[in-house]
Design goal:
mainly alpha; 5 helices
Length: 118
């Protein structure tokens, strides 16, 4: 049953990732917590690992469609990877409850900002 749920979570995440550039955090983390019973930290770490293949597939297709600005990718990816390496240790220090609340606040804030944007 968990494998089927995992497949469904991955499929939904793939659609959202391809259309919106997100999926791991927005779809997988809440689904892993609510549907598979993972704790927040494990859900975050698992979604990061799972999103690797999704990102590679979407990147290959987007490159074929000439939609990637590589001048932006390189510095953004390098900075993101370096900071993520160190921030991953911070994940361990946070409580699951604090992490869950912070994640929810971030989603709400970004969603509200996007609703009011032109």
């Amino acid at each position: 049953m968990n494998i089927f749920i995992g497949l469904c979570i991955g499929a939904v995440s793939g659609v959202i990732a391809a259309l919106c550039g997100v999926g791991g955090g927005i779809i997988m983390v809440p689904a892993f917590v609510m549907l598979l019973g993972l704790d927040q930290k494990t859900a975050v770490a698992t979604s990061l690992a799972a999103i690797i293949l999704t990102a590679l597939a979407a990147t290959a297709r987007n490159q074929m469609n000439d939609l990637i600005d590589w001048k932006i990718v390189i510095p953004s990816a390098l900075a993101g990877a370096i900071v993520a390496w160190f921030a991953a240790d911070f994940l361990k220090a946070l409580s699951n409850q604090m992490l869950t609340k912070g994640f929810a606040i971030l989603l709400i804030a970004v969603g509200v900002r996007m609703l009011w944007q032109k």
